[in-house]
Amino acid sequence: MVEIKNLTKYYGNNPAVRGIDFEIRDNEILGFLGPNGAGKSTTMNIIAGYLPSTGGTVTVNGFDITEEAAQAKKCIGYLPEIPPVYPDMRVEEYLFFVAGLKGVKRAELKAQVESAMERLRITDMRRRLIRNLSKGYKQRVGFAQALLGNPKILILDEPTVGLDPSQVIEVRNLILDLKKDHSIIFSSHILAEVSAVCERVVIINKGQIMAIDTIENLQKSMVANTLLNLKVEGDKDKVVRLLKDVRGVKNVSDIEYVSSGVYTYKAEIENESVRKDILSVLLNNDCNPIEVTMAKLNLEQVFLKLTEKGEKRTSLQDLLTEDAATAPASENPYDNEEA
User: Fold this and answer.
1) What is the dihedral of CA 193, 195, 197, 200, to 10 degrees?
2) Beta strand 200-205 with 183-187: parallel, antiparallel or unpaired?
3) According to the model, what pLDDT value does residue 5 have?
4) Cβ-count burial of 242 within 10 angstroms (0-12 exposed, 13-18 middle, 19+ buried)?
5) Angle subtended at Cα 149 by Cα 154 and Cα 32, rounded to the nearest 5 degrees
6) Are strands 14-24 and 2-11 parallel, antiparallel or unpaired?
7) What phi, psi does 19 have (nearest 5°)?
8) Is residue 200 within 8 Å of residue 30, measured between CB atoms?
9) Least confident stretch, 23-27, 82-86, 119-123, 295-299
10) Which of 65, 112, 139, 261 gives the lowest tally of CB atoms within 10 Å of its CB?
11) pTM check: above 0.85
């Protein structure tokens, strides 16, 4: 287990991480999400022991990452966004080198290197110079080094960057398989990927945690968590006005032309019962609803909702019921990470 308590990081007077708290449970896959400059990579670097914090604590399997760094780091396998590979070394040579740095016993060296190469399907590249590998294969080598030493905790920062679709599926399946023996935290640009493998997600924005929960619970906790897709025949401006006047309609967006007098609309509503009121209002005002379908917010929509505001809110409800606005860019000049 990893426990993060009141973690803070400043670069000069610029806050990158602002007193965050969360934990990574045993044999859990935790997604770590946030927009550019949110503080994700900074937080992951601190957890891995690569970057000192300004305040707060990180405890890995009972070891403080600052006070008991050597013991804590033995429990961690880390794949940063840019794989830490040496281009002038051969794949197998590099992995033996990393295993030695991690203190893997001589009797286990060969078996661990072979296992890591097999798991990442790079055995046939063992004699190749890393500089001659494609970006995808370099990423695999970086992933392989994270597995050496059998760490209990895996920290994966964009583990599928540079991989083709089939390789992404392989890595996704690998992460699910690794859950049996490891606790995993990873960030990813691909929110569908997070939905497929993560049990819980942490959403961070401007160095502050906006939500921690399962994807299902986040969707349920949204005040306006239902989307109504409408295709309506009638004057566009009139339809929009009617929809917005219905009690329980939170937003009307994505208005698209279909054919003469027919448009599609996306209405965000508080609950499914609002649908009846919408249909009644449209029909009573000579607007003909041709198609009506319901859909829940997916992870991407939840993520966008939670990161629309840059300021921390006292509750999830407060955050979601306010008007949307673009979150300001991070003030941290050193934390130009990708989402």
Assistant:
1) 130
2) unpaired
3) 95
4) buried
5) 5
6) antiparallel
7) 60, 50
8) yes
9) 295-299
10) 261
11) no
Place of tokens 């670097």: 45
Q: State the number of CA atoms in the 13 A half-sphere of 2 facing the CB.
A: 31
Residue type, 82: I
Confidence band for 235, pLDDT divided at 50, 70 and 90:
very high
Q: Could you tell me the pLDDT band of residue 301, with boundaries at 50, 70 and 90?
A: low
Alpha carbons within 13 angstroms on the beta-carbon side of residue 257 total 3
Round to whole Å and give the CA distance between 316 and 88.
Answer: 50
Q: Which of 205, 212, 153 is nearest to 178 (CA)?
A: 153
| 3/57 Cα distance (integer angstroms) | 8
Query: How far apart, in Å, are the Cα atoms of 31 and each of 62, 161, 184?
Result: 22, 16, 8
Structure confidence at residue 102 as a pLDDT band (50, 70, 90):
very high
Residues 6+ away with beta carbon under 8 Å from 298: 191, 195
Q: Residue 284: pLDDT band by 50, 70, 90 thresholds?
A: very high
Q: How far is CA 46 from CA 65, 84, 271, 280, 289, in A?
A: 8, 16, 41, 55, 54
Cα–Cα dist 192/297, whole Å: 13
Amino acid at residue number 233: E
